[in-house]
């Protein structure tokens, strides 16, 4: 994980955000291009890190892994359908949604097993293989045995707000009230240096709008 984060970061950046889709929202009988074509203005995954959602298209670098989805041979109806392999489909989709970003993608055919003791907290709209149904079944569905999953690590501007908020919160601390903290060997100068390093790190994730916002906040300080 650490080495992958290092690969995705450059220009002073060190942190990546985690994203996932559990399960990946694929309708039963639909191909991967069919599913991705429904997410041209959004993405079929959610941010797991404690950041506010960022608009699609803002990303410096990312690594995306999809498992449990295979390409079905159908008549090409879009550039995604014309791709030769599942890997090419995912890569084409990422390049379209995040132009200019460094994107790597990996596809594994084997889905994630969800047999006991995996908790059965899934919607009744899921089949035993983890694919979505158009409507709830009229019968009691069996336990979900496996699910397709997408997971990603992403270096993006969304991390600016998270890191800068952490810096602001730490800046408000009255260190005189934390004598035990400094008695452990941390010097006041070291604490202030780490604090400024955190602010510098947050600035590495700024784009134009975030930079203007930070300047306004700095002026208000």
TrEMBL record:
Position of the signal peptide: none
Superkingdom of this protein's organism: Eukaryota
One BP term from GO: mitochondrion organization
Example of a GO cellular component annotation carried by this entry: mitochondrion
PANTHER family linked: MITOCHONDRIAL DISTRIBUTION REGULATOR MISATO, PROTEIN MISATO HOMOLOG 1
Annotated protein name in UniProt: MSTO1 protein
Source organism of the structure: Calonectris borealis (Cory's shearwater)
Upper classification of the organism: Eukaryota, Metazoa, Chordata, Craniata, Vertebrata
Encoding gene per record: Msto1_0
């Amino acid at each position: 994980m650490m080495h992958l984060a290092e690969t995705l970061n450059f220009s002073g950046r060190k942190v990546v955000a985690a994203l996932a889709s559990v399960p990946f929202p694929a309708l039963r009988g639909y191909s991967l291009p069919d599913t991705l074509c429904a997410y041209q203005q959004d993405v079929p995954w959610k941010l797991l890190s404690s950041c506010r959602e960022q608009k699609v298209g803002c990303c410096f670098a990312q690594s995306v892994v999809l498992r449990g989805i295979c390409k079905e041979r159908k008549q090409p109806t879009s550039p995604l359908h014309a791709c030769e392999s599942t890997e090419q489909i995912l890569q084409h989709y990422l390049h379209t949604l995040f132009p200019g970003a460094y994107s790597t993608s990996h596809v594994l055919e084997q889905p994630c097993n969800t047999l006991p003791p995996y908790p059965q907290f899934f919607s009744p709209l899921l089949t035993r293989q983890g694919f979505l149904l158009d409507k709830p079944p009229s019968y009691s569905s069996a336990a979900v045995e496996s699910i397709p999953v997408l997971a990603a690590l992403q270096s993006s501007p969304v991390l600016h707000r998270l890191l800068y908020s952490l810096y602001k919160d730490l800046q408000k601390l009255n260190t005189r009230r934390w004598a035990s903290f400094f008695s452990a060997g941390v010097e006041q100068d070291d604490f202030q240096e780490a604090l400024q390093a955190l602010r510098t790190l947050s600035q590495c994730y700024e784009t134009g709008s975030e930079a203007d916002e930070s300047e306004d906040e700095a002026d208000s300080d």
